[in-house]
Amino acid sequence: MTRAPRGLAAALIAAAAIAVSWTPPARAATTVDRIVAQVNRNVITLSELEARLATLSPTQLAALSGAGDTKQKVLEMMIDEELVNQAAEKIGILVTEAEVSEAIRSIMEENKINEDQLKKTLAASGTTLPAFRTQLRTEILKNKVLSYNIVNRIVVTEAEVTEFLNGKIPEGAQPVFSATGVSDFDGVRIIFLPSSPATSRRVLAEAARIKAEIEAGLPFADAARKYSRGPGADSGGDPGNLVVRDLQPELQILARQLSPGKVSEPLNGGDTVLLITVIQGSPPVPSAAGSAEPADGGAPAESFSSDQRAGARRQLEQLKIRRRYDSWITDLRNSAVIKVTL
User: Is the pTM of this model over 0.70?
Assistant: First the structure.
């Protein structure tokens, strides 16, 4: 049985998240077309690039424009995707329709929604079930290739976990604890309000009103059941075991700034406006020496909890995977024939 890769339980959030989703190039017909990149034997056309750009929300486009030429950045991403696809083909990795169907079933099960609710949620995010299947197929393929080439070779030792918890933070990682005490494995609850450029002002005003209701005493879970139009609405805003570490980096920053029980300012993701809160387990905060200090000011604890160690291990694994992936992509690029004519 093929389960959805970790993180896909929150895949329905991707349309509202800041980072660009992993979506294969869409085939779009135009009157005049030309090749903008050659990747070994395959090409990427201008119409494919424009089709990808058309799928990005205003927030995503703004984030990309701050990092340089938007078209060039998206094209580079598409080149990397094509290299991964070719690597999968070379080693015989395939994704069947049954695997995609199982991944969707898993997502619906974890988010406690049926197919009709899934379709409505996708429509509110500006996409369709067939397009979502295509995205999932590519995501599953990517995870299979990563597992074959990278993930299975990643090892994190107990000593590395202990050093991390004691304050030895590798470059590119974040401490498990933030200034507010929010940890990687604290739960996240979200209210989704479908939006569009034409309705964003009204929806943002509605989100501000809902936030005021919550701050006046309405429980967040009740507000989610009453107002949310996305995953986890019937579960009080729980999209399916979502924790802080599962969020996109920009949303992580927002979540880590929240005090327990506080509600974020409305976040405009283009197709969706979000309100976020964090359900905290009140973990002990590390002292300057790195050991966990109890809240009553007594003697430092002998060790960190299993959840804290799990959070540290996961972050170290993700950091090593990201570094190994970047190195692998660099190797693929160095051995490929790539010609950009944008």
Answer: no
Chain segment 27-41, per-residue pLDDT in tens: 444 446 899 999 999
Name the token pair of 308: 């804290």
pLDDT of residue 280: 64
- Token pair of 215, please? 């701050």
Are the CB atoms for 209 and 172 separated by under 8 Å? no
DSSP state of 155: -
CA–CA distances in Å: residue 128 to residues 124, 199, 242: 9, 20, 23
Domain with CATH 1.10.4030.10 in the chain: 8-149
> What residues contact 235, with CB distance under 8 A and at least 6 apart?
112, 224
Can you identify the CATH homologous superfamily of domain 8-149?
Answer: Porin chaperone SurA, peptide-binding domain (1.10.4030.10)
Kindly report, residue by residue over 159-182, the tens digit of the pLDDT: 998 888 877 777 766 554 444 456
Eight-class DSSP state of 172: T
* Cα–Cα distances in angstroms (integers) from residue 304 to residues 171, 228, 300, 309, 318, in the given order: 22, 36, 10, 7, 20
